[in-house]
Amino acid sequence: MKRCGLLLVILMIIPSMASAWWNADWGYKKKITLDTQKLKQDGATVPASAFALIRLHTGNFAYFADLADKGKDIRILAADEQTPLKFYIEKLDVINEMALIWVKLPADEAAAEEPFIWLYYGNPEAVDAQDAAGAYDVNQVLSYQFGNGGVKDMTAYGNNPSEVTSTIGEGGLIAEAAVFNGSQIIHVPATPSLQMSPQSGWTVSTWLKIDKAQTNSVIFQRSGPADKVDLSILGETLYVEVEAGTKQEIKAPTPLTLGAWHYVAVTANSGALELYVDGVSAGSLGVATRELTSNMTIGADETGARGFTGLLDDFSVYKTALDANAIKFDALMQGPSSTALTYGDDSTPDSEGGGESLIMGSIKNVTPDGWVIIGILGVMFVISWMVMIVKAIVLNRVHNQNKKFEQAYGQLGAQDIAKLNKEDDEGDEDFDESPLLLSFTQTHGAFPGSSIYRIYHIGVEEMNRRLKKVEESAGSRQVLSPQAMNAVRATMDATLTRELQKLNSQMVLLTIAISGGPFLGLLGTVIGVMITFAAIAVSGEVNVNAIAPGIAGALTATVAGLIVAIPCLFGYNYLGGRIKEITADMHVFIDEFVAKLTEEHT
Description:
By secondary structure, this protein is an alpha+beta fold. It folds into 3 domains: about 260 residues, no CATH class; about 110 residues, no CATH class; about 130 residues, Jelly Rolls. Helix content is about 40%, strand content about 20%. It has 13 helices and 22 strands. Strand 18 and strand 19 form a beta hairpin.
């Protein structure tokens, strides 16, 4: 980078460059966007801490065959394509082409205008990066997904059941589900992490599906020294019962739909207990439960009676009371007809230029000899641009000052010129006071950048010297010979030549860049091609893949030479035109000035 300086900076900003590819070892990526507008229409926003469920299938994912064994190459990254996100795969079925992946969204996702994440895959040599325990929020103390591993807590707390008589069956909402036949139960022992306190609040949630009316079946039950909480179904009506001296209950106003999945959640804090069905509040009680410290039962009560018949999926317990928005978001994100996520097309580094562009790929194949040439061209590039910028500023200043001087000079009238021939009878006015000759000679600071003024000033000085010699001859008039006028013109022409030398100074550097840049680039290309073919001759491998990188790298030197020469060509022609314009103005002024003097003094 240092050796080619500004050249590489320009190459890096060429529009063909694409966004950075996270890791060149991964062959594919997919953009997954949270549809915040759809969520807003459904009455939810992205919580500060949220889980996203990525559902891949043939409709949105076409490269199941390119996934590594058990999806060990899957990586989830934040929008910056730099920050890895915690995730785990609940199910991956390459044959049937479907995958279910849980991802912990970044904390700042809620504030993003268009929240999205990246799914990378396609690296058979990758190691498994799943982290189920790290993916869960610290406040979630239990999560049963009922997958192939059976009933197992996926969180870091490890609150596994002590007894499981339910079975695992197909047809779950997310993957597999726990199947209850009315006489089965899951016992979860009490642990310190599972303490459900009204001070910190708690939440129990699950997806459930029933195919027939229930006979007062228990979904979840837990008690404490003086309290007991049941989440149950009577017929097709869901209700929560709290027993704290007296019994109180919340009944859902709408019966559950048979054969359909419903998201159910119960939250409690120090002042109220609330029931949610499908993300919507179904009622609340202004009662505070006390500590729930007993074993927890799922699918039946503590005695094994009041058994539930149906399916449960994604059973979770939180040690905080989730707010209504978080519950609504989970219902929308995990639901059977979820549209909270939109899936972009699968792309590769070649298809979108990710990771590095073709130009950068060519630069990487430049040989050391080529870098020397490009380094020289980089120096020429910087110098030539400095010359063009400085020269443009100088020429613009000279042009403006010349116009200013010509405007002031044009204001001298005929009466001023006539004074050149006046006799100084009283001795208090002589040629030194001639407006034509001395109108500007005493105000040099008024035209500091004018080349015409400098020519004028030299002409005035030369004219004054010759008029003084004539005036010293007694009785002579201020008349000069043609030879004297030619001498004045010669002096002014000499000054013009020196001014032209100043204007054209350093322009040779641009001609060198114009003619030499492409040839230096060609030299780098020829050397690179020679090295490429020499390497092929040594290795004996002749194919396009072996030749193309070297040739592309060699041609980079020619591109660098053209990048130097082309701007210099345009700049040289522009600056040359400005110099010709200023030169013409100087010639015209000399002709007019000498003509006026000749008319008055010959």
